[in-house]
Amino acid sequence: MKVLSYKDSEYTSFVATLDRRAIPEKGVEDLVSDIIANVKENGNQAVYEYTKKFDHLHLTDESLFVSADELAEAAASVDDDVKAAIEASRQNIHDFSRRSFRQNWSAENAQGVTFGERFTPYDRIAAYVPGGKAPLVSSALMTAAFAQAAGVKEIIAATPAGADGKVNPALLYALQQSGATEIIKVGGAQAIAALALGTQTVRPVEKIFGPGNSFVVEAKRQLVGAVSIDLLPGPSEVLIIADDSAVPEFIAADMLAQAEHGGDSIVGFVTTSDTLIAKVDAAIQDQLKSLSRANYMQTVLDNSTFCLQAKDLDEAMEICNAFAPEHLSLIVENEDSWLEKVKTAGAIYVGNMAAVAVGDFLAGPSHTLPTGGSGKSFSGIRADQFQRRTSIVRMDQAAVKKSVDHVETFARVEGLDAHGQSVRLRADA
């Protein structure tokens, strides 16, 4: 772990590097651009070539989609406790969603025009679920179950299969329970391109949701316009801000849980205490002994974990807002007053008992959150992102007459006399 105090000479320069923007690397940008162009030109053939190259899986039109038999086999093989956990999470997601949907409304302006908004679910969306070292069952819920709660009719999920062509049974079961109507065995930028542009057998969607690696995130960024996206959720990260009121063992546990994501994950810890970092480090070493993926987590701890002793909590808040963490764990006295100072975190876990893992799996809000600094511009997945917004305007002649003078003024200023005439004709009718 990189450990620095505000008293250290390199502290200021390191903190400056934490002010991030989600800007892609040139190599990633170029490769993804080539993949998108190939899929656009060659459809399924390109998708199958990339799947063979990156996932070592030979797909055909017959094996691209998960079959009904595969879904039935998966459901039969999933243990009851896993099914119960999936259902508990799904119910919490639906409950959270019901409280955050945007509602239709209407009102009347000063000229008597009735205006309002109407919100309707998308017809067809995609839920991307990453592959990797572990089956991300919770990610299936944290995307598809929100679409299900919103009433989206068609939910196509994309997730890479193993070299044997199989998708984890619990993941398939979670997708099925979350309303997935189709599932394709494809991951990476080629999946995003297929979902956005369509192929010979994959119909394009209206919006794509879900996290992924840097290539998936870049594909989503490049395809905006061809399709709508949720946000830019890449490799996972956590920032913990704590003072002497924090329990070192809890901080260590959350840092290790984050390190378990591996890959490009980032683990950050900022404290005002001059003794807490040492206590947390000791707790990490002690807890590592009993964890099955200790070597895997140690790599993240060595390569992408930082611990900072800040001068005070005001400085810690500045670091947080510059870093824009996906997950923020805030463990300080007078927590509500400090909570108000947080502007850019994707999700905030407040207090010693607020375990990030509960939010990841069960609590209700989606764990698909902005990463890489994109929290400055994006929010995490929420229920209203699955709704289209449409404005509605109604007026009678009295409202037109009250509006015409102002409209004609705008029309004159902008040189658009036909606009003014279209209103004057109605006012004088």
From TrEMBL:
EC number(s) on file: 1.1.1.23
Key words of the record: Metal-binding, NAD, Oxidoreductase, Zinc
Positions with a binding annotation for Zn(2+): Q258, H261, D360, H419
Gene3D superfamilies named in the record: 1.20.5.1300, Nitrogenase molybdenum iron protein domain (3.40.50.1980)
Protein residues bound to NAD(+): Y128, Q190, N213
Molecular-function GO terms, alphabetical: histidinol dehydrogenase activity; metal ion binding; NAD binding
GO CC list: cytosol
Record-level GO BP terms: L-histidine biosynthetic process
Cofactor note: Binds 1 zinc ion per subunit.
Annotated catalytic residues: E326, H327
Pfam families given in the database record: Histidinol_dh
Top-level taxon of the source organism: Bacteria
InterPro entries in alphabetical order: Ald_DH/histidinol_DH, Histidinol_DH_CS, Histidinol_DH_monofunct, Hstdl_DH
Binding site for substrate: S236, Q258, H261, H327, D360, E414, H419
Cofactor: Zn(2+)
Family membership noted in the UniProt record: Belongs to the histidinol dehydrogenase family.
Identification of the protein by name: Histidinol dehydrogenase
